[in-house]
# Entry
Amino acid sequence: MGVQKFTYDAVHWYMQKLALQIVAKSGKPSDQYHLGKIILHCFKEEPDFIMQIDGATGESETFGSALKRTIKCAGSLRKMGLNVGDHIILMAPNHLDISIPFHAALYLGLGIGCVDVALTVRELVDLFKCEKPKVIFCQNEKSENVASALKNLNLEANIITFNDSATYCTLAKFIENSEETIESFRPNEFDPETTTAFLVSTSGTTGVFKAAVLTHANMAISAPYWWLKYNTFPKPTRMTLLTSPTQWITGVITILMSSILRITRLQTSLPVTVEHAYHLINTYKPTDIKMSANMMSGLLKSELRESCDFSCFELIMIGGSAVSQTLIDEIKIVAPNVDVCIGYGMSEISGLSVINFNCVRGACGQLLNCVQAKIVNVDTQEDIHEPNTPGELWMNGPTLFKGYCDNKALTEETMSADGWLKTGDILYRDENWNLYFVERMKMLLKYRSYQISPLEIENVIQKHPGVDSVAVTGIPHPNDGDLPVACVVLRKGSNITEEDIKNLVKESLSDSKQLRGGVIFMEKLPLTVSSKINRLKLKEMVLQLVKGNQF
# Structure
């Protein structure tokens, strides 16, 4: 057991061994990618293994308990009439119950949409319109928002609450009503190559909600690559700390693979503040973590840093945004013996596509073996063959998503005519095919680990009758990424204040999309020759104003 200096194929050998056992039992070669059958097999092999711990309460659950509860949950979903290809929604913090319908859905071939608990009714309407869920699992305190969004769409769906409710069926009751047993249960048969496993929310420059459709095969091929540094399976490491919410693909992959690889998963039903993260690390001594660069930076910059012992970690994987060499150096100060890896990827390629295992300075890393890539000239669309020449990164391979849910036009826009994913990111490579990130072509903002569409915020502000025009950009912050700032041109005679604009956004959008950079009132917005907002010029103007403290 332990982390290796170089990458190792042991995780793939283990996954192949599991696949052979499952295919030998079913006689169906495609079952090697059936995540539901893989998880069932793993749960049955060691029922006393501690699967998960809620660090907020101290509660834990074994494989045996999860096996019984997930099977009963699957039985109730079947009784409700759900079948292969239907969708469910999970909308809750990382308590012990959220993984129960998560695994049950994989048994049955149901697509899982994991949703930010902070979404407003307006945002839920966009999401439900796209994903058309049959069942929504949520906290009772969010159930009325869910019901309002469903009513707005005239969409029928069952609401199941994780906690007590006077109005809706609870998960405990839902499970109790099932007659399914471990002995009698059989997962659904389906083609893992085409059956949806996850609908991963991803923001876009259009401001329109979109969800990347990932199949069982996509995830079964991609997810093991996160554990290439370990050489002993199962149980490659004692405990992984989950800090990502389930709507992030790191959260999905951690829940999925910790069950398959037999790694105890430490999570929490409370918000992951710096103080709470320190408590989890000091109390449980986790050995593995996948964490955003912004969150890691926050842990290291806190005045209370000396109170946390980071030496328990064997491997820390950082991603979600650009990772500076300074951050890596700071990690090495608090945990000299830890192995630090950098990850680059996107939901459309099933998460990870590039890893910097050996931390080549400034690089994102090298391509995973399951991913094809090329760098393309943005203007000519021709391949760039020379090193150190920036261009747009295009990717392909068996982990490539099946498109955006219920949005053929956007899928076609994102793909090339011959089936390559256009990432929208500018990178270059060196002679050894280490990839270096340059800039995003798309103008998305990233506050902490949340992607934010400027257009979505603009659409809200533009509805105010006193606003003539608006454009949103970001002010860089050393720890939090981009702070959204609204540049507003008022109609003649309007007396709207900064607080009016901020309150309008606060009433319509979730916390990550708030105007933390403030509001700037302008005479006019900079335009291109084609009368579109010149966002690069706008960014320059805002940065100059910030530099001069003129607002």
